[in-house]
Structures are given as structure tokens and as C-alpha cells.
Design goal:
Layout (H helix, E strand, L loop, with lengths): L14 E13 L2 E12 L6 E7 L5 E4 L10 E5 L8 E8 L2 E8 L5 E11 L11 E4 L3 E9 L8 E10 L21 E6 L16 E4 L5 E3 L4 E7 L5 E2 L2 H4 L4 E6 L5 E7 L11 E2 L4 E4 L4 E2 L4 E9 L4 E3 L4 E2 L5 E2 L6 E3 L2
Parallel strand pairs: 2-11, 16-21
Antiparallel strand pairs: 1-2, 3-4, 3-5, 6-7, 7-10, 8-9, 8-11, 12-13, 12-26, 13-22, 14-20, 15-17, 15-19, 17-18, 18-22, 22-23, 24-25
Length: 337
């Protein structure tokens, strides 16, 4: 799978900077306004338009690009799919306290880091207070509170936060080699794997494996876990990074040891699981495809771990004959046992 900095399938999705007015409340006859500068990570698919028209030879064309001429074309807006869960840090005024509350909508833990920038009429946090938390799956947590100093001046806090999937305390500890992520008794060629990384050139993709396979190939879970993110409605794909980097259909599955697996470039409407589902090793979960930033039909598979404010891919081995461990290597045929 090809990659692009900050916009590569398999990475924590790209950050978007926004400035928002947060909570407001009356305070000492004035308004309390907290300004939030935040980084949001999202895997939500954008809405898409499908064009259908005949070319000069009378062949029907189906594409996401507008016709090259003014010829008549049918258009259809495709649904963007289920909205991805959210992570947020919000503020509220509780008596004389500015309260920060974190929310994690994912069925997996997330790491949150808050950075305070400008404080007016509020106390400073304790010098040894680490503004860093791990929120449990689908949970809400009061993170900390800052007391107002003067009664007749509205407190103001400028802050930002970032979040990443996973608990930094996790350790990769599988009980057996990973199952090849397709049907038993089949084999497919590995086209990219460490250390031959033509396009896997970032820490989150360094140990990813690309496996060439026809569109529509059954994909099976390589390891048991909880599905916590799905993108299923994309139909676009191509070798243009800027155009297609965010258009891959994916599944992320949290393992019992806190790592998670990414299955990417899946077929549109071919995903058979939803966030919150528990899957077992070998369960049928999706169909392979060619969506997103991809030069040809294949499955991008990676196991990732949160190492504390950064997500990295980690090396894995697959199960071979009689339970032996097989290290993925470019050019080899990977078989499922």
C-alpha cells in the first residue's frame, strides 16, 4: 500500500485543526467563555457522487469523476456510512471550578493529552500534575478542575488536546502466530513487507504487510478481538495519494493485549462486522478490495501499538504448517492454516 505523510491509510487518521467556542456560563455578572483549540482524529468517509454515462463507443462508464464533456450523465449520491465514534474534551463551570471532562466513544481505550496555553483568572495546575489520561472504552471521565481566582472577572482557558487509539501500557503478547487473514487452504503473494518498504515509509506502516488478492476475496480475522472502527462505504481507489489517501474502507480490531490490527482497502459494502462486535480468530469479517490509495487490488494488514503519544506498527509472524512461525517476506506465497 502506498503512503503519504499524515494522510496514509493505516496511520492514525489525519488531524484537523479547528477553533471553537466551548462552554459559556454566567460568572460574576459576566460571561464565562472557554476557547478550545483541538486536534480531531477521524476516519469518517466523505459523501461521494457516482457518475454513470456512455462514452463515444457506447460503453457505460461508472466513476467518481465528472464526465469529460457536457454529455448527459446520471448521478447518484452515495451514503457516507456510519459516523465514526468521537473523542472530546469539554469544559463546564461548576460553582467556581472550570471542569475538564473527557469522552471516548470508541469500543477501545484512547490516550488523551491536554495542553494548556493561555489562562486568565484561574489557578495553575499543580507542577507535578500530568495532563495525560487513558480513557476506558465508551466512557466519560472528569479529568481535572481549575479554580477561579477573582469573583468579578470571567475565567478564560485556551487549551488543545490530542488523542490516540490504545493504552501506552499495553504490550504485544500474542499466544500464537497470527492466522493468515484469508480462507484456509488458500495462498496469496506478499508484495510488500519489512524491510522492503517501497511505500511503507512511516513508523505506523513500517511493519505492515501488503497481500495481493482479487477484489472480493474473503477476509478472516487474524486474531480475536473487539471491532472498534469501520469505514465501509468508499468505492474510490487509485495511485494518486492526494486524491485517494482517505478513501479506503477499513476495519480496526482491538486485541486482548491492547494492540490492534488494521485491515485496509476493503471492498465497498463488503464489511460484515460493526463497532463493538467481538470476533474470534478465523471469523469472516469482510471482502478485499482496491479502495483508497492503492495501485492494485490487495489487503493491507498491520498490527499497531500505542507507545505513548505515538502509534507504531510492530513486527509479527504468521502461522505456518504444524504451528510453525512464518516471517512475511516479499515475493513469498502466504498460506492460511
Amino acid at each position: 500500500m502506498k503512503s503519504a505523510a499524515q494522510k496514509k491509510v493505516g496511520s492514525e487518521p489525519r488531524s484537523v485543526r479547528r477553533v471553537l467556542a466551548a462552554d459559556s456560563a454566567a460568572f460574576g455578572g459576566r460571561r464565562f467563555v472557554s476557547t478550545i483549540i483541538l486536534l480531531l482524529f477521524t476516519g469518517i468517509a466523505l459523501s461521494q457522487t457516482l457518475y454513470k454515462y456512455q462514452d463515444t463507443d457506447g460503453t457505460w462508464i461508472y466513476t467518481d469523476r465528472k464526465p469529460p464533456t457536457e454529455r448527459q450523465a446520471e448521478t447518484r449520491d452515495l451514503p457516507s456510512g456510519t459516523k465514526a465514534p468521537s473523542v472530546s474534551v469539554t469544559t463546564s463551570l461548576v460553582e467556581r471550578e472550570v471542569r475538564f471532562t473527557g469522552y471516548n466513544g470508541f469500543a477501545a481505550p484512547v490516550e488523551i493529552i491536554v495542553e494548556l496555553e493561555n489562562l486568565h483568572n484561574v489557578e495553575l495546575p499543580m507542577p507535578d500534575q500530568a495532563l495525560h489520561w487513558v480513557l476506558a472504552p465508551r466512557s466519560r471521565l472528569i479529568l481535572f478542575e481549575l479554580s477561579a481566582l477573582e469573583d468579578n472577572i470571567a475565567p478564560q482557558v485556551d487549551y488543545r488536546f490530542i488523542w490516540l487509539h490504545g493504552d501506552p501500557a499495553s504490550e504485544h503478547n500474542p499466544t500464537q502466530p497470527y492466522r493468515a487473514p484469508f480462507a484456509i487452504a488458500n495462498d496469496y503473494q506478499i508484495t510488500q513487507a519489512f524491510p522492503v518498504n517501497n511505500t511503507h515509509d512511516t513508523v505506523d506502516s513500517r511493519y505492515a504487510i501488503d497481500i495481493a488478492m482479487p477484489i472480493g476475496t474473503d477476509i478472516h480475522a487474524a486474531r480475536a478481538g473487539i471491532v472498534f472502527e469501520v469505514a465501509s462505504s468508499n468505492f474510490r481507489g487509485g495511485a494518486d495519494a492526494e486524491r485517494y489517501a482517505e478513501s479506503a474502507n477499513i476495519i480496526r480490531i482491538l486485541h486482548d493485549d491492547g494492540t490492534h490490527a488494521l485491515y485496509a482497502h476493503l471492498n465497498r459494502n463488503g464489511i460484515r462486522v460493526r463497532p463493538g462486535d467481538r470476533v474470534e480468530r478465523g471469523d469472516y469479517i469482510a471482502e478485499s478490495g482496491n479502495t483508497g490509495f492503492s495501485s492494485g487490488p490487495h489487503l493491507h494488514f498491520a498490527v499497531m501499538q500505542n507507545f505513548g503519544q505515538r502509534i507504531e506498527s510492530i513486527p509479527i509472524v504468521f502461522e505456518g504448517p504444524s504451528g510453525t512461525a512464518v516471517t512475511p517476506s516479499v515475493g513469498d506465497a502466504l498460506s492460511a492454516y
